[in-house]
Specification:
rSAM; Heme chaperone HemW; nine-stranded mixed β-sheet; chaperone; three-stranded antiparallel β-sheet
């Protein structure tokens, strides 16, 4: 068992683009914490206790909405129920305006050694458009406060192709980001997910999507600047200084087993995937009754395993390990990849099939044609 993911489904306010499960009902935080402690106890059995845990990742929602005492209760339950490696990677996602000196110091004392800060942009207007609750100066202050508190592994999130973003504002965002020297940067193109407020605004004509040409230019500029700064582009949306890749997220891309805790969290053990209910009230109710809050369980077919291996592999620096595929699958994949090998979007090196720098720009579309 490589890792544990904990979904903290609370936000002070909702970002317009987000389609992750979350709620602003702060009154449910305390009963949620009690329910999560119960789920940890119920999950503490094989196969989830078969191996030492190497990574613990707290996502959301906004995990930094929890108080240090609430975090401590959950950390204590995890350590009591699972064998967690002494050098495990402990990551927590946080909003910039939650990161006070005392809060960061409490995180360090609880054992968190990696901080993922949701900055998204260093342009106040862009932040207001997507309903982020911090400004650019608060974002810079948060990184500095984290540094002063002893965090030496900091990741920041950025988004490009935001409404009203320009080439110059994106370049300034990157300049301000790299000036803070974060060990890791995750950068995503804005997506218009169904049923989000952002999509409804676009459908009503109140905001305009950026053209694909802008996305490509923004992505190329980002990749070029970060490469020159010494970052490894190790996954389509992720960049890290050597030695600072996200161990937890890398385990997902390599299909390593993990346990998901909290509403909407997914778990994976070969070749079975399951998910908890995406409803915090139902989650609490289920655990108060002594039942695991499982929404569904599915077994992956050999074809689904193959497709997932190719899809995840092509998004990473290493690419797909062809030696790990069956002969028929390997032959079929290389045949379907032939047009992209011919135009340089994909590369066949030794026993791997991987995307070129330009291929990464189009990788989702390429993957869709390979099956």
């Amino acid at each position: 068992m490589a890792g544990i993911y904990i979904h903290i489904p609370f936000c002070k306010s909702r970002c317009l683009y987000c389609d992750f499960y979350a709620t602003t009902q702060q009154r449910l935080i305390e009963p949620f914490v009690a329910a999560l402690e119960r789920e940890i106890e119920l999950r503490a059995k094989p196969p989830f206790t078969a191996d030492t845990i190497q990574t613990v990742y707290w996502g959301g929602g906004t995990p930094s909405r929890l108080t240090p005492s609430q975090l401590e209760r959950i950390v204590s339950a995890l350590r009591a129920c699972f064998a967690i490696a002494p050098d495990a990677e402990w990551t927590i996602e946080a909003n910039p305006d939650d990161l006070t000196p005392s809060y960061c110091q409490a995180l360090r004392q609880l054992g968190f050694n990696r901080l993922s800060i949701g900055i998204q942009s260093f342009q106040d207007r862009e932040l207001r458009i997507i309903n982020r609750r911090h400004n650019a100066l608060e974002a810079e202050r948060a990184v500095k406060v984290a540094r002063e508190s002893g965090f030496d592994n900091i990741s920041i999130d950025l988004i490009f192709a935001l409404p009203e973003q320009t080439v110059s504002t994106w370049q300034e965002t990157i300049e301000r980001a790299v000036a803070l020297h974060p060990e890791h940067i995750s950068a995503y193109s804005l997506t218009y997910e169904e049923e989000t407020p952002l999509t409804r605004l676009w459908q009503k004509g109140k905001i305009a999507k950026q053209p694909e040409s802008f996305e490509i230019e923004a992505y190329r500029y980002l990749s070029s600047v970060l490469r020159d700064m010494g970052y490894e582009h190790y996954e389509v949306s992720n960049y890290a200084f050597p030695g600072f890749r996200s161990c937890h997220n890398s385990s997902y891309w390599h299909r390593v087993p993990y346990l998901g805790l909290g509403p909407s969290a997914h778990s994976y053990v070969p070749e079975c995937r399951s998910a908890n209910v995406a409803d915090v009230a139902a989650y609490i109710c289920s655990l108060e009754a002594g039942n695991l809050p499982i929404d569904f369980t599915e077994m992956l077919s050999p074809q689904e395993v193959y497709e997932e291996s190719v899809m995840l592999g092509l998004r990473t620096l290493q690419g797909v390990n062809l030696a790990a595929l069956s002969e028929p699958d390997r032959t079929t994949l290389l045949q379907r990849a032939a047009p992209y090998l011919a135009n340089g979007a994909l590369l066949h090196t030794a026993n791997h099939l991987k995307a070129s720098a330009d291929g990464l720009l189009l990788i989702d579309g390429i993957i869709a044609t390979l099956f």
